[in-house]
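All the exercises in this workshop are built on plain-text protein records. A learned vocabulary of local backbone shapes supplies the integers on the structure line. Once this layout is familiar, the rest of the handout is easier to follow. An example says more than a description, so a record of this kind follows:
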Amino acid sequence: MSGGLYERVLAAAGGDLPPARPPRPSASVALWRRRDGELEVYWIRRGRTLQFMGGWHAFPGGALERDDVERTLTGVAHHPRPGTVTAPSPEVTDPADADLAAGIVACALRELEEEVGVRLEAYRLTFAGRWLTPAFGALRFDNRFFLAEWRPEDGEPRPLPPESEDGGWIRPAAALAEVDAGRAIAAPPVAHVLRVLAEEGPEGSPRRLLDTSEANLGPLRRIEFRAGVLVFPLAAATLPPATHTNTYLVGGGEAILVDPGSPFAGENERLLAALEAAERRLGRRVREIWLTHHHPDHIGGVATLRRELGVPVAAHPATAERLAPLGIPIDRRLVDGERLRLAGEPEIELIVHHTPGHARGHLAFEIDRGEPSAARDLIGGDLVAAAGTIVIDPPEGDMDDYLATLERLAARPWRTLLPAHGAPVIDVAGKLAEYIAHRLEREGQVLAAWQAGLRSPAEFLPAVYPEVPPPARPLAERQVVAHLERLRRQGRIAG
């Protein structure tokens, strides 16, 4: 692919599937009780400053620590199927360790006490399933869930910062309603546990909780953080720390497929099987493919999906211009402000936003379900990343355009930003403000270095990007160039 350094780096990364990072063992406990005959569970809202799932609703839990393995326990946790090893995801059917691996039960008990102040003994726990977190980023967990009946003598659970900032007892069906309405965000396994408990109660549910196949769409997990928006993280030729690009299926009936970015045949086969399952089970049928922009990690599977699904591809005119030499036709041009109504449940209207900066033809897609604007979600492409950074590589990338885009989006409220790389961002205002402040801070450093007499982009790196490892320095130089061009246009430097 012709273009800037960033595009050449991405194109060169597309030869092999990225190596899978080993997940870290972890454990969570769903406390339950019956109050006036009604089943309730205790859930928390995780601290917003936490790196993993900050601000999300979950059950108390966390990662295995070394001391957990050495801790002596009283009693043994119950397993509904002793001797079995539960598959944590469709992609891992033969995990290396057992469900009740060394330290896992101790981890669950420790986290329960640290996060909500409840101390239990091991025999009170019942194993309730095993889930591998999606491949959104560098941090993945092989999490074991447990159920435990709460008793008044255990003491009332209470959220203990910084791990948890809020919590309370709630009926499982009511918790699901909060998630479905978008007033809370929870990971798929939490929603699955809530659903099974609401339908079967804790006494009869553990065996169903162990079989998580009902939460799959063919070979992929059903991940639906917001109603009508499925996300499929697929291995792609992208920049570390990201290893995957999120492909979105938007719509409750008629649906738009956004950014099928994997170049790997196996990943696209899995995606096609998941889309077939989504149509068969959920009635969601792809009518068109939309692209946020032209970079390799966003269009790697376009030709395959276009051919196999028999649907047109739509993108910004500048994206069409960049893809034409690659033999990837764009059937329809998307323009700023365009709206498309998708029939289904929920009914969704997609609104196109032209968001240049990372690329001239970059687009973002607003999801309108008829709610107030503050409750709307935005598929953001490479506007921001949940982890890592966004590269601005001139001339395709433009720092003036990028900052103007961020400021324009920051001027209105959003409920969730769904990025191309990483998990959903729920503090959208905070993330946009962070990105703007970061770029302006870098700009100040570039200006100071220029005033100190530096001229070659490589000379700026020790002062502006001292933390960047050698392999990433060429891309860091392109960021310096982008800032220098902006400073020249502003008349703040000469030359």
User: Anything to note?
Assistant: Residues 428-451 form the longest helix (24 residues).
